[in-house]
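Chain A, query sequence.
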Amino acid sequence: MSNRIAFIGGGNMAFALASGLAKTWSGTITVAEPVAEQRARFEAPIRATADNAAAAAAADIVVLAVKPQVVGPVAREIAPALGDGNLVISIAAGVPIPALEGWLGAATALVRCMPNTPALVGAGITGLVANSAASAAHRQVAEGIMQAVGEAVWFDEERDLDAVTALSGSGPAYFFFVIEALIDAGRKLGLDGEVARRLTVATAAGAAAMAAGDDPAELRRRVTSPGGTTERALSILAEHSLSEAFAAAVAGACERSRELAEEAG
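Chain A, predicted structure.
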């Protein structure tokens, strides 16, 4: 496979991916985006154009980075420009592989990805699933592209991406919600708002760094002294069924992801 890549859509995720790839990618990178202001964000060596079909025709790897509601028309537009051996990577949330195959052709090598917003700062994690037409080489290329903005995890079943969407796709919003709540709690205890924000964000970042290398449950036990402040706080959270609320929230998000996939398909 050659190394000519085209992004169809120049939004924030495409910008993050293209900019990350530009640091190490040895081939050409083209972004097709109809809005001039969006195109202006991309700098050399990234090329920008308003022509979707032309960008796809000149590429070996096409990344569909448009909004889910316009994936169908855009996929049909670029389908005639695709050649044998082309790889199409879709980062359109909720659009299933059977729908993509219907628009692009069943023989098209497809990898569907579910990235999350921390990819915008190079700290994302992406779930990936491939169709039967995608070879090991196609999978390797797709994984390398997504690793330009973070980690990549493969799944065998497309339905697993609904759980990925609920957990890591929507997950940043859950943590933002918790951060907001803790900042507000700090303010209510008399802390300056900016100080409460700094304390909360630094604590969240530090806790995440520790959890990356150890069992979160064990870490929690280590900082929970009997009769201490942490034990009191955690007991109150347990009284309010925080764990059950999170489980219900993630299950609800997963169910909604499946509904959206059915609507798109």
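Residues 205 and 211 are 10 Å apart (CA to CA). The longest strand covers residues 124-130.
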